[in-house]
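quick one, two chains, predict together pls
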Amino acid sequence: MPATAIYPEPVLRRVEVTAPRANEDAEARPAEIKIATEHVSIQYGEKVAVRDVSLAVEARSIMALIGPSGSGKSTFLRCFNRMNDLIPGASVQGQVCLDDENVMDPDVSVVELRRRVGMVFQRPNPFPMSIFENVAYGPRRRGMNDRRKLDELVETSLKRAALWDEVKDDLRRKSGLALSGGQQQRLCIARVLATDPEVILMDEPASALDPVSTLRIEELMRELREAYTIVIVTHNMQQAARVSDVTAFFTMAEDRAGYLVEVGPTGRIFTRPNERLTEDYISGRFG
Amino acid sequence: MTANAGSIGRSSGAKPSLNGKASRGSILADRAATVVLWGTGALVLLILGSIILHFAMAAWGVVSLSFILDNPSQTTLGGIMPVLWNSIYMLALTMLIAVPVGLLGGIYMAEYAGDNVVTGAIRFAEESISSVPSIVVGLFGLILFVDDFHWGFTALAGALALTFFNLPLMTRLSEQALRAVPQDERSASLALGATKWQTIRHVVVPLAIPGLITGVILTAGRVFGEAAVLLFTAGIGTPPHYNFANLDITNPASPWSPFRPATTLSVYIYKLNSEGLGAFKNQIVDGSAAILISMVLIFNLGARFVGRVLTRRLTAA
């Protein structure tokens, strides 16, 4: 890790690198870790965007990544499903483990990885196709053509995404783009659910939505938490406080590389953070 | 603190005037630009309008159903059916070759190729071939297909020469149409576990169809209108009476065969106008020109319609 050798500060500030539990006082039960990163650094060409982040996400929990713009949260999130592969010049060092497999391994099939680790983007981006085809897109690409199975899958996915009742009457006629922003984002969530993922990454999923739609997405996340592991990047601290079990706070070092300041149960991070930087950010003194 | 109740910012000093002298120059420039740009647009419309009007008037009384459907005649006005057929045939044959190859080339350039020496060379070739005079491309077709390959003057030689001529344009326009598809759409598809090819096939190409159709229209227009390339490759002459019942495409006597000379409408106009002798020569030229223009317009409108249908089918089926 040449990067950390040159800039030791971020490493020293990192605390709680092991999986934090939702309830601090809970007895030490073996937590099921879904994703664990080990010394992940991400570079765009020469520029270090994320430096030496190690953290673990417990299965069926919601982890929020918060921090000021440019602190590398989104970039870090994108290494979980290797979306950084698409950016020319981006390179990732370190390990990202999904269950026990290192997803950075060159033998890993990114297609399979992205099916298991779904992603919802900042701007709702349904395809300009019917609602049905949007949800059926993932399954179809994996060769599911049975009409009855698809019908069933589309219905369950839309129900899980709390969109079914609003769209069931014109599934095939209405374009995904004809929905409202909030509905579009729930359609994007349904589209991800249809690929039967284990982890759902959300990159500021509500930042383009109105408050009512935002609350619906948050409710939905709480429900999905029962079955899925969710990692959300958000600028909205209230949102992190409302929905997440664990919060990880990122900020920028002097060379503008993002790093992890601390990670812990959301309740504690927002009331008794260990780090001065976290406290300053949460109380609005910077960022 | 009542600062933001009334005046914004300035509380003292000179008030900015609403009819300051400084703005007069820029207002004049603005008006001049409006007039010039509007005038240029009007000029384009005027040129197109006068061409259409001229030939509509010249062809009045010449163009009729029998002019379109009859064979040419030495003694009467006759018709242009065989050359019209050849134009349509050449269009179909050329598009059959140029569109898939151009589309695949465009996909390569937009989605796979990096920015390197090879793509630089491809781009340079695209631009160079596009600006080579068509008569030179025709000459090359004559040497290669007609003479070296011993095909003689054939529709296939013409279609291949036209493909040489059109492929760079088709490739470039396909590339541009594909590049114009937002990156978000690709990310969305890839993040759902689709492969790169699935993403191109099911998201990028369907979304690029309007742009691809523009490429097809521009290419087709050049096929319809091109005379120089075809003079040397597909042949020039008054076509024989075709027997459409002869479906044997290997038989050069069949109008369906690519191995036969095929004088197109634009070549026919050139021939009649430069060396025609018949009494009805001028009427036939005017009528043919009017038909040619109509064909281009019909094709353009038709292609846009097909594009809309295709977009709907590909994105919702």
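The interface with chain B takes residues 81, 83, 86, 111-115, 118-119, 121, 123, 125-130, 133, 137-138, 141-142, 172, 175, 188, 191-192, 195 of chain A (CB under 8 Å).
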